Amino acid sequence: MFNVLWLQSAGCGGCSMSLLNAESPDLLSILESAGINLLWHPSLSEETGSEVVSILEQILSDQIQLDALCIEGSILRGPNGTGRFHMLGGTGCSVMEWVQKLSQKSRYLFAIGSCAAYGGISAAGENITDATGLQFEGELAGGLLGDHYRSVAGFKAINISGCPVHPNWVTETLISVALGEHEEAALDAFGRPRMYADQLVHHGCNRNEYYEYKASAESPGERGCMMENMGCLGTQAHADCNSRPWNGEGSCTKGGYACINCTAPEFEEPGHSFTETPKIAGIPVGLPTDMPKAWFVALASLSKAATPDRLRKNATSEKLIYPPTIHKRKN
């Protein structure tokens, strides 16, 4: 069996809630079929109090082999590096200390969600709790354990980032590791599994026709592309949210919400409203990945000039007004 311990640190628990939405089959069936044994999870396990402490102590004393340590939520180092802003009840030790000790016993270390990976929402603003990720602090390598850390199996932390994560990102990565298929090349520069991080949210977006012609939405609820005015970062965000819909159907952009690039370090501090696109001389600051500004200006001008009237009018509407023209065969 592949033993997994899941601990929650500073965060909202949203990644666990998302994980419960795993389907076809359900979460517990997925874990069982892959030979994954959940030693303990704060929401799914029966053990409480001294029973949980006993499991942790048996891991530290090598009575239980820990194959994967999953941390959800950022680590609070405050006040003054003591970690005592967040204590693990009944132990007299901070969650920070437990993570430091357990990470030395685990064959693999998983940061579940952007908070555990990079600090995330908990590190926003003045960060008075000194919140950080496991091996990153924002975009900078380091975090709680330092860039030098390697798990017992010789790997850096696996950062399954997202706010929250897609359940399949977690289950598929766990299964891959449990099968012995993990290697450093499977992760990108920010430690994210490339099976989803090598994609862009833009891929598969149902607003792509509007994007191609730069037929843009101007207010919430409108059908057009949200990049130009509404703050959408789908052309920069590394995730497969639209090609792998949530719950088989949805995504942020499909639901009318701009992508905020929640899989990236420091997404929580954009420096402006999430629903606004900052511009310089009318050009969006956040251009699509790998596109020079000059190209964007030229292509955008041509696209807008060629925009079909149907798209131009539908873009600023809350419902479809003009359907595509039906082309009849000529005899």
Q: Which properties best describe this structure?
A:
10 helices, single chain, alpha/beta, Cytochrome-c3 Hydrogenase, Chain A, domain 2, 5-stranded parallel β-sheet, 331 residues, Rossmann fold, 13 strands, two-stranded antiparallel ribbon, 2 domains, elongated
Description:
- The protein is of the alpha/beta class and 331 residues long.
- The protein folds into 2 domains: 2-197, NADH:ubiquinone oxidoreductase-like, 20kDa subunit (Rossmann fold), CATH 3.40.50; 199-318, Cytochrome-c3 Hydrogenase, Chain A, domain 2 (Irregular), CATH 4.10.480.
- It contains 10 helices and 13 strands.
- The strands form 5 sheets. A 5-stranded parallel sheet has the order 2-1-3-7-11, sandwiched between helices. Strands 4-8 form a two-stranded antiparallel sheet. A two-stranded antiparallel sheet has the order 5-6.
- Strand 9 (136-137) and strand 10 form a beta hairpin.
- The mean pLDDT is 93.
